[in-house]
Design brief:
disordered N terminus, single chain, 164 residues, 14 strands
C-alpha cells in the first residue's frame, strides 16, 4: 500500500502482510483498523497514531516511531500468545494508553519519555531498553510514566529507571 501526499487518515480498513520496510510516512492516523502479520522494520513512522486498532504479529524492529500514540489498541494476539516486536526501535516520547501490549518485545529500544498507562503489559521484554538520555559523561536523566499497568512477568533486566 502506498499513500499519496493528502492521505493521512486511514479508517476502518484491514491490512495483512503489509511490506512497509524502509517506508517514510509521517503523521499518519489509523483509526478502527486491523493490521496483521506486517513488516514495518526500518521505517520512519514518527508521530503515527493508532486509535482503537488491532495490530497483531507485526514487526516494528529498528523503526523510528518518536511521539507515536497507541490508544485503545490490542497488540497481543491471543490465539498465538504473541505480541508485536519493537526491538531496537525508537519510541522516545511515545504513548501506550489503555492497550494490550502483553509479550511485546522492546529489547534495546529507545524509550526515553515513554508513557504506558492503563495497559495490560504482562510478559513484555524491556531488557536493555534505554529509558535514559545522556547530558554529559556523568549526567543522565531517566524518564518514563509506567502507571496503572500490569507488568507481571515482564523483563526489565539492565534497565535504569532512576527517579521515574
Amino acid at each position: 500500500m502506498s499513500l499519496n501526499e493528502n492521505q493521512k487518515l486511514i479508517e476502518n480498513r484491514e491490512f495483512s502482510n503489509l511490506d512497509w520496510k524502509n517506508e517514510y510516512q509521517l503523521d499518519l492516523v489509523f483509526r478502527n483498523c486491523k493490521i496483521s502479520s506486517s513488516d514495518f522494520t526500518n521505517s520512519n513512522l514518527d508521530d503515527v497514531e493508532f486509535v482503537s486498532c488491532d495490530i497483531l504479529n507485526c514487526d516494528f524492529s529498528d523503526a523510528s516511531m518518536r511521539n507515536a500514540i497507541f490508544k485503545n489498541c490490542t497488540l497481543y494476539d491471543k490465539s498465538n500468545q504473541k505480541g508485536c516486536d519493537f526491538q531496537k526501535s525508537d519510541l522516545r516520547h511515545s504513548q501506550f494508553r489503555n492497550c494490550d501490549i502483553s509479550t511485546c518485545n522492546f529489547y534495546r529500544s529507545e524509550v526515553f519519555g515513554i508513557v504506558i498507562n492503563e495497559c495490560h503489559a504482562q510478559g513484555c521484554n524491556f531488557e536493555l531498553a534505554e529509558f535514559t538520555t545522556v547530558v554529559s559523561k556523568n549526567i543522565f536523566f531517566s524518564s518514563a510514566q509506567l502507571t496503572k499497568s500490569n507488568f507481571m512477568y515482564s523483563d526489565f533486566e539492565g534497565v535504569h529507571l532512576q527517579s521515574c
